[in-house]
């Protein structure tokens, strides 16, 4: 009997603590920590803290990947701090690609708003690829931390909106992690079995050294 009573009391206490504050608007005067930003003083909170207008503007796709991500994470949108949610816009020009990448702190749902997008992710258990060609109105769920990608699958620009289960889901692009740094070419060759000449070429294109 003791454990059920203790468990019920713990749930009630957690619910009570969670409802102490309705929200925690990000205070950008302090650094972001593992639990997010500290809270802005309630007297300084305005309705504009809960509104973000940056996703109505197309991203700049004049880059090597012909793609652009416009985030509305806690760092840009103070109202989502502490809520366990965030949003982003993905623009893919013709031939555009969002290369293999991960969001270490959040799962996502991709909604295609315009064009056609080939999207998929790779399971960590057995490296199974789950891939689908998505059209306007289609959505796809992508589990937290898994490598995934999006490719423009048509001859017109594509647009998608992405929701996340974290106010700061993080982003690490595999190509940039490997080739946009000073990790020695020899070490990359040993750990990836890629040809050293190709590695140096990729480092040159993406801004890496060594």
From TrEMBL:
- Say if the entry is tagged with keyword Nucleotidyltransferase: no
Cupin type-1 domain sequence ranges: 53-200
Q: Name one GO cellular component term.
A: apoplast
Which residues are listed for Mn(2+) binding in this entry?
Answer: 101, 103, 108, 148
A single MF term (Gene Ontology): manganese ion binding
Output the PROSITE patterns linked to this UniProt entry.
GERMIN
The protein's location, in the record's own words, is: Secreted, Cell wall; Secreted, Extracellular space, Apoplast
Q: Please give the superkingdom of this protein's source.
A: Eukaryota
Q: Where is the signal peptide?
A: 1-18
Q: Which of this chain's residues are annotated to bind oxalate?
A: 103, 108
Q: Please name the source species.
A: Malus baccata (Siberian crab apple)
**Family recorded in the similarity comment:** Belongs to the germin family.
Q: What is this protein called?
A: Germin-like protein
